[in-house]
Amino acid sequence: MSKRYRDGYGIPHLRADDHEALAFAQGRVTARDRAWQIEVERHRSQGSSAAFLGPEALSWDSFARRVRLDDTARRCHAALDPATAAWVGRYVDGVNAGLAAGAARAPEFAATGLSPGRWEPWTPLAIWLGHHVLFAGFPGKLWREHVIRRLGPGAARLFAVDGHVTSGSNGWLLAGERTATGTALIAGDPHRFIEAPGIYQQIRLACPEYDVLGFAVPGVPGIAHFGHAGTVAWAITNASADYQDVYAERLRRDGDGVQAYGPQGWQPVHRHVETIEVAGADPVEVEVIETERGPVISGGSDEPPEVTVSLRYPPRVTGDLGFAVLPALLRARTVGDLDTALDDWVEPVNVVLAADTAGGLLHRVAGRVPRRHPDNGLRVVPAWEPAYAWQGWHSMPKRPVDQVAVMANERSISAGLGVEYAPPYRADRIRELLGERTDWRAEQMASVHTDTYLAAAGPLLDLLADVDGLSAPAQALRDRLLRWDRRMVADSVDAARFADLRAAVVHALAAHPALAELTAPPAHPEVFTPWLALLPRIGYALPSLLRADLPGLDPAELVRTAAEQVAAADDTRRWGERHRLAAWRALPDPAAAPGPELAGDHDCVLATSSIPGVTDLCGRGPSARYVWDLGRRENSRWVVPLGATGAGPHHDDQLPLWVRGDLIEVTGDWDRLTEEHDD
């Protein structure tokens, strides 16, 4: 038996008689609230979304088929222990019980002609894989291989800003010595693509064994990444670890089969053909090939090794996705419980912060990272060379917490596990802000979440300061930007002018002969384009490129020309007029109004990311914000970019709060909630 309650924002609070009944209730409420979202994700995980979304979804579907997401999920589910399998199964039962009611509320089903399907026992694992298979950024190795082939081995790290990553998060922990209550606070915000509905679902799960609130991933049971269980709370960021490899493959036809050349010579490999249905177009056949290294994700048996690559990633190799950790997290009472559970975490690799009411603190990395040759982390390596095989697993590092711990994807606790990390701007700024006082309260954490200081502006402005020979308008622009407080606030014209200067420099670099060889992207599938396009790469790596030793590059002349160009335009628009939210929708609405104006930028703590030189629109940013108070859970706070449901009055009622940086107080008292009955 279970009961469903809602707070004023429609956030579900679920109570059940036991652990499995609660999983059923979570699955059902998710299907009722997010039917369209989770059905899109189910189809994406099995490579069938083009059947109702059309040709634009074909590139993803082809990748999902070739990388064998659904088959990997089946393998991992088959290896689950019976108790975890039963728990996941009850969640799936709940989804199937709620899908029809949820679909009736979601207009997208009628708009596309899609009927709700039936979930399989492994579907939650497939959805988790679909969300995270690109999370470690292995396409960056395809990019570096392209750079090496065009500019030489010395250019392999040319586009690193301590390696800018395109996904990330902020998180911080304050021990009791730094808070007004004498108990720990954990706060932060995961940065992902902003989706409508959102990737994170606020929810509370309570049964006699536990009472946990936090952010679930719709379609997946439990509360994986951010949770508060009363006596213990936890949060994560992306560790920027490198745990996926791409191998250049030599393939040849052998009658109806295919062979691959590996360390033992030519060997037969798995091959079959699948058909993808495409709305409004002809079906497309996809050849699925898997070598001993892994599935072939680019090229094929009729193409050269330069573009024929396979992907090796831990869940495919081991048949383990770490799903047994999810119920263990719900049952945790101390940081020791969490620490033990996280030893079995697999995908993705995370940095974890946790605290408990007894004063326990935890700062560690969780996940599975293979040991192998250093070149594996840098580029595409030859499949036929035994030196590039995996050789066991790295131990996951831990670090004691000295009053304050910060995680922002920088080169820190996980430094030995990766290649590319976020620049240190966000982490350094968070530490600076947290050092300003020792009496922090939960309600004050929003001031850190919403900080707009852009330390990353420094390298470009330093160059601008030394440029001479400017025209009078360009001189005025330079003086104005050097007086600017470097805050990317929505009302700032100066912030917009800086963005203009940055974009002009990005375009100038892209047109420079030193980088001309990189203009045409390598011949890999369209799904990898965000990692392989030159302008975004320059935009994110601009500070390091301005210091790079490139033939014929004069950074001062580049900045001078850009300043003249921007000054001549004399644009007086505010940053927020251009920096607007552009949430991803599986079914876009061409008539939708522009999103709200936003403050922030990709290297601010308020990391509302656009792509310098490409667009000022924000597609990636804080996909949730939270503050976990270990002294009194009811003092905790949370918010998401849109709302708790995919349709109805709560689909976007949190958006104004999120834009302002406000947080919703967590409701812990069941008497303050409204019990909800089925329609």
TrEMBL record:
<keyword id="KW-0865">Zymogen</keyword>
<dbReference type="InterPro" id="IPR043147">
    <property type="entry name" value="Penicillin_amidase_A-knob"/>
</dbReference>
<dbReference type="InterPro" id="IPR002692">
    <property type="entry name" value="S45"/>
</dbReference>
<feature type="binding site">
    <location>
        <position position="242"/>
    </location>
    <ligand>
        <name>Ca(2+)</name>
    </ligand>
</feature>
<keyword id="KW-0378">Hydrolase</keyword>
<feature type="active site" description="Nucleophile">
    <location>
        <position position="169"/>
    </location>
</feature>
<comment type="similarity">
    <text>Belongs to the peptidase S45 family.</text>
</comment>
<dbReference type="InterPro" id="IPR014395">
    <property type="entry name" value="Pen/GL7ACA/AHL_acylase"/>
</dbReference>
<feature type="binding site">
    <location>
        <position position="245"/>
    </location>
    <ligand>
        <name>Ca(2+)</name>
    </ligand>
</feature>
<keyword id="KW-0479">Metal-binding</keyword>
<dbReference type="InterPro" id="IPR043146">
    <property type="entry name" value="Penicillin_amidase_N_B-knob"/>
</dbReference>
<dbReference type="GO" id="GO:0046872">
    <property type="term" value="F:metal ion binding"/>
</dbReference>
<keyword id="KW-0106">Calcium</keyword>
<dbReference type="InterPro" id="IPR023343">
    <property type="entry name" value="Penicillin_amidase_dom1"/>
</dbReference>
<protein>
    <submittedName>
        <fullName>Penicillin amidase</fullName>
    </submittedName>
</protein>
<dbReference type="GO" id="GO:0016811">
    <property type="term" value="F:hydrolase activity, acting on carbon-nitrogen (but not peptide) bonds, in linear amides"/>
</dbReference>
<dbReference type="InterPro" id="IPR029055">
    <property type="entry name" value="Ntn_hydrolases_N"/>
</dbReference>
<dbReference type="Pfam" id="PF01804">
    <property type="entry name" value="Penicil_amidase"/>
</dbReference>
<dbReference type="GO" id="GO:0017000">
    <property type="term" value="P:antibiotic biosynthetic process"/>
</dbReference>
